[in-house]
Amino acid sequence: MAVDYSLYLITDRHLVGTKDFFDSIAKALEGGVTLLQVREKDISSKEFYDISLKLKKIAHAYNVPLIINDRLDIALAVDADGLHIGQSDLPIDVVRKILGESKILGYSVSTIQEALYGQRMAADYLGAGAVFSTDSKADAGEAIGLEGLKKIVAAVSIPVVGIGGISISNINKVKSTGADGISLISAILSQEDTCKAAKELISLWKK
Amino acid sequence: MAVDYSLYLITDRHLVGTKDFFDSIAKALEGGVTLLQVREKDISSKEFYDISLKLKKIAHAYNVPLIINDRLDIALAVDADGLHIGQSDLPIDVVRKILGESKILGYSVSTIQEALYGQRMAADYLGAGAVFSTDSKADAGEAIGLEGLKKIVAAVSIPVVGIGGISISNINKVKSTGADGISLISAILSQEDTCKAAKELISLWKK
Ligand code: NI
């Protein structure tokens, strides 16, 4: 399964409002999401497992790889296509050993030092941010800005995805940094029509 | 490493008060704790990993096996001696496959049906409870009572450890059910002298 980092959707079951969670994600995939990450907090392992199994089926129906956030055990249990870890998760070298070489491993960074470390530790891609400041817990810490993203992109040879506060209004600026894709949560999931939102974002990104 | 289920301590970093967490556990091991489970909630994967690595070293210094609660990934990452899962964790069959046959696998049950299922799914031991009603989140749900524990012990051939509300005052009654051990949190960790508390409990249990 080839990896296209262009439009990377991260889940948050609390953001879909009254819409159906799985239906909202299926529609976003239909609209053009190219990569899907299950990122759920305050959830039992059983629920995380059940949701991930269901989303794997949905993602694969659209030929989109499924990545699990943080939880190596869930990634192994559902045989996901990859795992995304951050600075507060298990050490990347320990994770790579247990996950195996064939799975996609993503790593969250906000500095060039972290980016170079991730690349050295065999991350397949980096999630760099927060690009813009946001309230979302997914991308806490001070914003690195477009300049910070640009520097990280320039520092490594692996794909870099921008994350944090990215939307229709700033997508062109993010593209100009040379990043390989954009990672979004609310810019898709909070929208009334997640298919339309994904369609607009991917067409702007690919323009 | 032979497993002695007699005095099974479950951690909770929020219960040690002003005492040092690691010191309190080391002293409890010195007092006679025979099995140690790391059970920490609301914690990052990195912190869980760091705590578990440290407790593994401490437990092994006392020749006591280290069990991880819920998180299969942490158990794999620190190469723990085993994993304990409950009804809200990953499915036991999935866990056993990934964990391997050589590791200790514990399973929380409160009914005979769950106990028989756990035994059939190759659990090494069962944690049965809550024996007595308690406020601790570790053993939520209605109490099964001494009768409930006795029935579970009689129904399976693998070791059964009683959990929930067990203390000096009721230890003899729990012993009379035929259980292989007692699982405790606050009856040890909340005590001023965790060494003395463990010593009293194990001597009462072994009497
Ligand atoms: Ni949320």
How do the helices and strands line up, and which of them pair or pack?
Two copies of one chain form a homodimer.
Chain A: E1 7-10, H1 21-31, E2 35-38, H2 45-61, E3 66-69, H3 72-77, E4 82-85, H4 92-99, E5 104-109, H5 112-120, E6 125-129, H6 145-155, E7 160-163, H7 171-175, E8 181-184, H8 186-189, H9 194-206
Parallel strand pairs in A: 1-2, 1-8, 2-3, 3-4, 4-5, 5-6, 6-7, 7-8
Helix pairs in contact in A: 1-2, 1-9
InterPro entries (chains A, B): Aldolase_TIM, ThiamineP_synth_sf, ThiamineP_synth_TenI, TMP_synthase
Protein name (chains A, B): Thiamine-phosphate synthase
Family (chains A, B): Belongs to the thiamine-phosphate synthase family.
Keywords:
eight-stranded parallel beta barrel, Aldolase_TIM (chains A, B), magnesium ion binding (chains A, B), TIM Barrel, 207 residues, alpha/beta, 41% helix, binds nickel (II) ion, 17% strand, homodimer
Describe this structure in words.
Two copies of one chain form a homodimer. Chain A is 41% helix and 17% strand. Chain A is of the alpha/beta class and 207 residues long. Chain A has a single domain, classed as Alpha-Beta Barrel (TIM Barrel), CATH 3.20.20. An eight-stranded parallel barrel of chain A has the order 1-2-3-4-5-6-7-8, surrounded by five helices. Chain A is globular. The A-B interface holds A 44-47, 49, 70-74, 76-77, 85, 87-91, 94-95, 98 and B 44-47, 49, 70-74, 76-77, 85, 87-91, 94-95, 98.
